[in-house]
Specification:
heterodimer; A: mainly alpha; 21 helices; B: alpha/beta; FAD/NAD(P)-binding domain; Enolase-like, domain 1; 5-stranded parallel sheet; binds flavin-adenine dinucleotide; binds iron/sulfur cluster
Amino acid sequence: MSDRLDPTLALASGPPEESRRVPTVLAGLALLFMAVFLFGVFPFNHPSVLVAAIGLLASAAVLADRPSGDAMSGSRLGKSLVFGGLALGLLALLGLWRIVPDWILLTVSTGAVCAGTIILARARYGSGPAGIRNHGVYNTPMLRRGGAAWIAAVVLTGFYVLLYWFPQSLEGLIRTMDPVSYTIRGAAADQWFMYGTLYSLAVLVMGIRALYRYRHDRYQRWRTVSVILAQGVLAYLIPQILVAFNEPEFYFSYFWPLKPEYLWPGDFGNGWIWDHPGRLGRFMVIWGAVMAFVAVPILTYFFGKRWYCSWVCGCGCLAETAGDPYRHLADSSVRSWQIERWMIHGVLVLVTIGTVVLWVNSAMEGGLLGSFSGGFARVYGFVFGSVWAGVIGVGFYPLMGARVWCRFGCPQAAILGLIQRFFSRFRITTNGGQCISCGNCTTYCEMGIDVRWYAQRGQNIVRASCVGCGMCASVCPRGVLKLENSKQEGRFNGPVLITSDEVDVMAEDWAASVSWK
Amino acid sequence: MHVVIVGNGITGVTAARFVRKHSDHRITIISGESDFHYARTALMYIYMGDMRYEDTKPYADDFWTRNRINLVRGYASRVDADSREVHLASGEVVRYDRLLLATGSRPNRFGWQGEHALGVQGLYGLEDLAEMENATRDIDSAVVVGGGLVGVEMAEMLSSGGIPVTFLVREEHYMDYLLSTQESELVEAAIRAHGVRLELEAELDLVETDSAGRASGVLLKDGRRMPAQFIGLAVGVRPNTDLASTSGLDTGRGILIDSAFMTSAEGVFAAGDCAEFRSPVAGRKAVEQLWYTGRSHGRQVAAGLLGAPADYAPPLFFNSAKFFDLEYQTYGVVEPVPADGQADRVFSDGARLIRIVYREGDGAVVGVNALGVRLRQNVWSHWIRTGESLDAVLRDFDRSLFDPEFSTRLEVAV
Ligand SMILES: Cc1cc2nc3c(=O)[nH]c(=O)nc-3n(C[C@H](O)[C@H](O)[C@H](O)COP(=O)(O)OP(=O)(O)OC[C@H]3O[C@@H](n4cnc5c(N)ncnc54)[C@H](O)[C@@H]3O)c2cc1C
Ligand code: SF4
Ligand code: SF4
């Protein structure tokens, strides 16, 4: 049965505005540039074409961010910078690169786009009264799976495909990162350095946007600061500085099973990193094991999976910043919850079995798998590391929200989730009967949890998948939800609308105490 | 046993859910506005583009079939209580054994000249919302009349779309029939901070129209004129008694019911916005048009629909709202000025406020208002029900806070 409202009602279509088409046009141009870059002959396969494509996409997203009433002071300057940065990229196309070195061009145009984004965010969210501003989200094609969003997804996925499988096509772009790379780690850039730099930059810039956007909410502010630092320091600077000191490139913020190779035999478990001179390598392997098996359960017991998923993890860092505009795209149907449970636990089982088998194989000196042991690692890395976490996980931001990987693919999330569900203090407490069933919480839950289902029956939310981003509590207009990790008692309160002294009168099972005819 | 419910608002569907929970009765809900239950409280978010209509449906569409609750889209035009039949406008007839009327409310109009012109409307349902979307496209300015909770929502809706809004409030201060002057002033500041022109002690006299029959402005009682192409009327709602009165049931302001929700016709109950208690519970109103009340009625009228009518036992009064960015909660009895024998303590940092009302003799707390601070309902309900003393409450105050982690707490000195 479809909901047939009166056909004359065209709800939530919103007034068509010129400015809303601009993002679509920009995203379309980005697609065109991408194609030119891929199929073009010299000089059109120049890196600046790709930079321009990415820049165009970023500006499309930035401009779509707030569709209505964009008259704040500063927004013109922000827009000019974004467009100026792009214009530079375009000039490069026309031959300017022959005068100015690529890396200068790149730095200036990227810098302009970033500065423009921040200035725009400040104009839109940093001035005037502070509060939740999700107005217009569903009137904006880029944010409601319109044409612009599809194009953006194609461009993003395309970028990941090049990154993973055709890095040679990105050679020019990678070379422009050399100055930065030499400064930080004393070596030439490679595709991963280039990617890490762009990734951290996106977290930083969009993190600043989030700081403006949620400036009224101290939980969101602290969380955003954590996310910016975790990505910038733990997942970018430290590993690169390690490289500068000839130590293994190691990420202290990732553990088995998100980075399964950290505990696999081979490089880490019993290979060159373990034996690396200076014992730092050994420390890394032990650190990884202690984090995976001791710290994860303990921290998750006290704080829930959020200490990792929405405060530290790199995937979460990007999702919470660059992915912030796309929270509402997570499907909250029961069906997607079912699929999610099967998939995520399936991956966990797979990676666990894989780890055990690899170790047995290693103990038997290859007797079990023979030459296939390297094959397993490669296949796992291909399917989960590249296709799922990268191409789909980030490429589909504009279509399925920013947590596709976290919901459906991440084995770390599976473990943290099991602990959170069964051995943790963390829950989202529901404030008695205050819920008005409006749906803001469910709509803006990036994990697709139907928060309202619990809130409207006065039940606390104890769900394995909740990453504790706190957005449900922020958007709730009635202050119904509170993330808590105080003592465990009362964590699973039943469906009771008002607890304690209101006893039977409001209880969901009140009627049971009356005898019926 | 066939239980039929007219109206798929919060009252009707809550009743249906509880009847299903405790019986295998056939259940049918007849409703005219939409196929499925949606949250009326979220209408503003659809307009502002925060959510789509489908996001405001509290239950997935297959919930109803899975729970064997039969949904019929249509208007009930008459109830024949003798033959136990509901007649629909389409001509269809539905037989019932027990019937619940949960027909909700209608926006008030006070017979102002020009109040039916194009661009003049209230906001109650989906049709109003669509009308408002159309009427507010490409306009230069709007006026909202009526200083209640829906008025401030309309002002927020319009101003979020960049339309200059004038908000006319008849009272000396916004909602001064519920709030203290200090509280009103905080709310007024919140409204003005969003660029809304708030006019206090401003009463509508008539709506001016242009030659095409469209609203072009308002004239106030004090003689002032204001141009506006949209005029939102948010001057309260009245119980929708149309179906009940054409069917010969007793009605007053609302559909008259006894303390167990029974109307004057046997087997016919009424609850929610549309109902009026003949003798209300002490300290409560005869008509209480709130989402929470509808939910609580719905839960309890289910007893009657199941054949064991029970007297209404309302939970401790509570309500909440949001004035632009400022959240408001209230528990228990809080008068604008404490009644005789009562006093209040106010804690405020200029942006947020808590006002606790207590009895002067023993210091027992009787109610609390909170602006910009979230309070735990179960803690406060407990304190108020058990008459906890003000001192004890202040000592233990942190336990009642529900603000997000890392929030700065509002100081309450003992
Ligand atoms: C914009 C707005 C915001 C609000 N916000 C809040 C809030 O924040 N907090 C709060 O507590 N309350 C709020 N309210 C009030 C709250 O929504 C109502 O009290 C509540 O919805 C009443 O529920 P009900 O089920 O009794 O009636 P309704 O929700 O009105 O449902 C009755 C339904 O029955 C249908 N109907 C009527 N007659 C017939 C007929 N003859 N045949 C078939 N169908 C019929 C109507 O079309 C309607 O769909 C708000 C109201 C509005 C309009
Ligand atoms: S339930 Fe709330 S805190 Fe948890 S993931 Fe969803 S929005 Fe974030
Ligand atoms: S918990 Fe809050 S946001 Fe969620 S449905 Fe209830 S009132 Fe709305």
